[in-house]
Amino acid sequence: MWDKIQETVKYIKDKTHFAPEYGVILGSGLGSFTDDIEIEHTLPYTEIPNFPVSTVEGHQGALVFGKIGTKNVVAMQGRFHFYEGYDMKEVTFPVRVMKYLGVDKLIVSNASGGVNPNYKVGSIVILKDQINMMPEHPLRGKNDERLGPRFVNMSEPFSKNMIVKAKEIAKNSEIEVHDGIYLGLQGPTFETLAEYGMVKRLGADCVGMSTVPEVIVARHMELETFGISVITDIGDAANIETITHAEVLEAAKGAEPHVRELIRELILRY
After folding, report:
1. Average pLDDT for consecutive 10-residue bins of the chain (270 residues)?
2. What is the C-alpha separation between 22 and 104, in angstroms, rounded?
3. What CATH number is attached to the domain comprising 62?
4. Domain that holds residue 246
5. Which residue from 91, 207, 212, 253 puts its CA 20 to 30 A from 114's CA?
6. Residue 107 in 3-state DSSP?
7. Is residue 88 exposed (0-12), middle (13-18) or buried (19+ Cβ within 10 Å)?
8. Hey, which residues does 131 pair with through a beta bridge?
9. Considering its fold, how many domains does the chain have in total?
10. Cα(16)–Cα(65) distance, integer angstroms
11. This prediction's pTM
């Protein structure tokens, strides 16, 4: 793992001569955030040694390097999911690479199904905690102390300081945001009504198929992390029959301008 990370980092540094401080992982339907970046380099995943390639519609498959104001940013246009057949080390490999490119703050976004009755389709949720229900753990196996400790303190998966700043930005911009706990399941099936009920009873507000492993690995390497989710479907009897991936992308698109503004302003001001 260590050698692969270093090989990939060297390739990217040689290609870009760019040192990002912010990393952004763009979820389903949120890929156009890169329009806010003054782009200096774009590297398709297919050209990067040791990188998996995203197979999901709505995930474009490139690392984008550039500036937002004076801040150097690298954005992942398209992420990797466990359900695509990758193991968790592959899913989280880009987070490892970001760290060694210079990133110390990570923003993760996703589309999720809501079980909180205060949510509606298009609601924007600032993640305050997460529940890991994935069948494999990204830190399983022999630990490499160069990457982080064997046992990781997960008491603050999402940075409280970044949450405070994001809420302040939302208030000033009159963007409605909610708090929420995100639960990660393997996918790729959307949840059954009974599973949505389980998610709610376990104490989560929304559920999806990503984010959790990336956040665990980010915290393993002490990256300060912020998570934001767009509610693209509601997990109740009235709505469950209609959900498709196309509708998820459409719902994410509706909330995208506000999500973009929040992420952009957070990078500029934090």
Report:
1. 97 97 89 92 95 70 96 94 94 98 97 94 96 97 97 98 98 97 96 94 97 98 97 83 74 86 97
2. 6
3. 3.40.50.1580
4. 2-269
5. 91
6. strand
7. buried
8. 183
9. 1
10. 8
11. 0.94
